[in-house]
Amino acid sequence: MGNDMTDKITNWTRKDDAVVENAIRRGATRRELLQMLLAGGVAMSAGGLVLGRAGNAVAATPVAGGTLKAAGWSTSTADTLDPAKASLSTDYVRCCSFYNRLTFLDQGGTPQMELAEAIETKDAKTWTVKLKSGVTFHDGKPLIADDVIFSLKRHLDPSVGSKVAKIAAQMTGFKAVDKQTVEITLANPNADLPTILSMHHFMIVADGTTDFSKGNGTGAFVREVFEPGVRSVGIKNKNYWKAGPNVDSFEYFAISDDSSRVNALLSGDIHLAAAINPRSMRLVEAQGDGFVLSKTTSGNYTNLNMRLDMEPGSKRDFVEGMKYLVNREQIVKSALRGLGEVGNDQPVSPANFYHNAELKPRAFDPEKAKFHFEKAGVFGQSIPVVASDAATASVDMAMIIQASAAEIGLKLDVQRVPSDGYWDDYWLKAPVHFGNINPRPTPDILFSLLYTSEAPWNESQYKSEKFDKMLIEARGSLDQEKRKAIYNEMQVMVASEAGTIIPAYISNVDAITAKLKGLQPNPLGGQMGYAFAEYVWLEA
After folding, report:
1. Residue 2 domain-assigned (yes or no)
2. Each residue of 243-289: pLDDT tens digit?
3. Beta bridge partners of 118
4. Whole domain around residue 351: which residue ranges?
5. Are residues 348 and 477 in the same domain?
6. Which of 72, 135, 288, 395 matches a 20 to 30 Å C-alpha distance to 172?
7. Burial level of 103, CB count in 10 A (0-12/13-18/19+)?
8. 352 and 492 share a domain?
9. How much is the pLDDT for 61?
10. CATH for 188
11. CATH of residue 233
12. 10 Å Cβ neighbour count for 35?
């Protein structure tokens, strides 16, 4: 039996599908469409399936033309078109519009080729990158190996100030084999290189570029206007090496106030309002069919950190008790207003290929928590817990945990401190405090930043020689199943041994007009991993 009941009932063909799709585009009613199907010999029981399939096909057919306008939430006079220095979401959106990467991550988190035709290696240390032919920059210059080498080597120059200098430092050798082939040598084997090259900062720029305000890339849009802290406008690249983009032009700016951003959408001034809060979600939903919410859960999280080298985290039973005390479901429901997925105390989110779904979240169990707190001898003490609006929803999370603690007689003193200076003065320093981590594309990057013995952001001061060795082994292996098994075990180790509690992976919600089509979730973040402008279209 085929995928559709029509396979069994009638000799239905793709040509017949096209007839139905054209009728839908002309505005035929559902009743008229069903009558047409009955006349063609399709049973009523199968008619709904045919219409659903045809409707989806119509919805998925890009429409050319129009001006796309969208608003993010953050901007600065330091806005840049230099991919190496990009730091805000608005920078990422612009860079994705004007430039391309060697690879990009698809919806499932798997690296796909973009400017690279192929990326190959035999030992995960020496990599051969074959470039696509026929690609040109906006100024007409052909893309060649020298452009790739220049773009990657820039990150190693301290004067550039690259945001990914530490990640790029593993690239120690570059060689142009010919005009379309680059050889990259790493200091040590790393099978994640194709994924690393999909990060926004590794966009390819023209060899020798010093003036980045022109946005001279190979991307879908040509820069027309760039006003840092104000707006940017791109027009369709008519010589683009890929199909698309669908829209004729694209304008992007920031509206920092959430209500104002949503009102701009509802009034028709913009087509997309990025990263709206729960109150605004209800306002958008109340508008009916004219607007849609696009939800992406890509790995951002707020976590509770207990330093294992300080009291009370140095007492193993205190850490165990806290893990049973955190009601993860309530945090998602109340602190995050439903905008999240329950976490299992490790940083590799469900959006990542390597996520260990077999690792279940610790159950909320106040009695077990009480047992461990008694063993730790912390009853009768007042334990400071530092929270701040700087770490998303951490204050609300702290209040929920504090209330659960009070019910079993444990006093948690929630200290709410200002956002200004939080990351310098409290994060990584206070014995019990909250952090907030943005999505990273690979377990290796997450573990290297946060959990190895020498990790620069080791929030709980977790140290494990076994963990460190496993990370090196996984990094250098080209055996995907072996890597997955190692990463799965490492996630279990973090969840059970580290002093970090990750109660939820936070969802990002973009609000869009129903006329905007083609938006898909992406593991690199909202707005389709910030690359939406190239792929979406506007219905007439």
Report:
1. no
2. 889 999 999 999 988 899 999 999 999 999 998 887 788 889 888 88
3. 130
4. 300-507
5. yes
6. 135
7. buried
8. yes
9. 83
10. 3.90.76.10
11. 3.40.190.10
12. 13
Residue 263 and residue 118 share a domain: no
CA distance 467 to 489: 9
What sign does the dihedral 201-207-212-214 (CA atoms) show?
negative
CA distances from 29 to 13, 26, 58, 170 (A): 22, 9, 15, 60
Which burial class, exposed, middle or buried, applies to 479 when counting CB atoms under 10 A from its CB (0-12, 13-18, 19+)?
A: exposed
Contact 205, 150 (CB under 8 A): yes
Q: Do 131 and 143 meet the contact criterion of CB atoms below 8 Å apart?
A: yes
- Look at the block and give the residue holding tokens 């829209």: 247
136 & 202 share domain: yes
Instruction: Report the C-alpha gap between 47 and 34 in whole angstroms.
Output: 6
Which residue type does 465 have? E
Q: What is the pLDDT of residue 218?
A: 98
Q: Got the DSSP string for 46-62?
A: HHHHHHHHHHHHHHTS-
Contacts of 307 (CB under 8 A, 6+ apart): 313, 314, 430, 431, 432, 459, 460, 461, 499
For residues 520 and 534, is the Cβ–Cβ distance under 8 A? no
Q: Which residues of the chain have pLDDT under 50?
A: 1-10, 14, 25
* Cis peptide leading into residue 443 (ω within 30°): no
Domain assignment of residue 188, yes or no: yes
Same domain, 436 and 464: yes
* Together in a domain, 131 and 114: yes
Same domain, 33 and 146: no
pLDDT attached to residue 10: 47
Q: Which residues partner with 68 through β-bridges? A: 250
Same domain, 42 and 75: no
Residue 29 lies in a domain: yes
**In the chain, how long is the greatest CA-to-CA distance?**
80
CATH of residue 458's domain is: 3.10.105.10
- pLDDT given for residue 8 in this prediction: 39
Last residue of a domain, one of 180, 211, 242: 211
* pLDDT given at position 88: 79
Domain total for the chain?
A: 4
Residue 392: predicted pLDDT: 87
459 with 450: CB under 8 angstroms? yes
Cβ count near 339 (within 10 Å):
19
Residue 275 lies in a domain: yes
Beta bridge partners of 136: 142
